[in-house]
Amino acid sequence: MNHTTAPQASDDARHVPVKRLQHYNPEVEQRVQGWFASGQPLVWIPILSQENFPDVPQQLLEFADHYQEAMRWPVHRMEDLLQLPNGITGWLMPVTASDTDVACGVWNGEIYILGARAA
Predict the structure, then answer these.
(1) Residues 41-56: tens digit of each pLDDT
(2) CA 6, CA 50: separation in Å to the nearest integer?
(3) Boundaries of every domain in the chain
């Protein structure tokens, strides 16, 4: 699912427009909205892949992947997502979580939140 989303419960996030795209998944939207509405801190961790970093050798990406814990980007409000590096997909999850199926990225000033599933 690709969609831009904003929590309805948070006054400071209401100015982030919502645009549901073709593969909209309401379960993922509700989960992410719940995270923001609860006020729990989130983290964004870049996905170290050739798609995100086409000029970086695969061997270097695999090495860096062992240090993902150090790459956690703190996210406290929906607006924080707009500060993510443009065009890089990462995992979005509560800071206390060890895994997630929610990916997030920013392209040209728009936040995309995606539900990822195993192939």
Answers:
(1) 999 999 988 888 999 9
(2) 29
(3) 3-115
Quote the pTM value.
0.76
Among candidates 45, 29, 51, which has minimal Cα distance to 115? 29
Question: What is the rounded distance in angstroms from the CA atom of residue 60 to the CA atom of residue 64?
Answer: 6
Beta-bridge partner residues of 107: 110
Q: CB of 106 within 8 A of CB of 86?
A: yes
Whether the Cβ atoms of residue 52 and residue 89 lie closer than 8 Å to each other: yes
Q: Fill in the amino acid letter for 90.
A: G
C-alpha distances in Å from residue 95, one per residue of 18, 69, 76, 91, 114: 24, 11, 10, 11, 18
Q: How far is CA 90 from CA 8, 9, 10, 11, 12, in A?
A: 23, 24, 23, 26, 23
pLDDT digits (tens, 9 = 90+) for 42-95: 999 999 888 889 999 999 999 998 888 888 999 999 999 999 999 999 999 999
* Cα–Cα dist 49/41, whole Å: 25
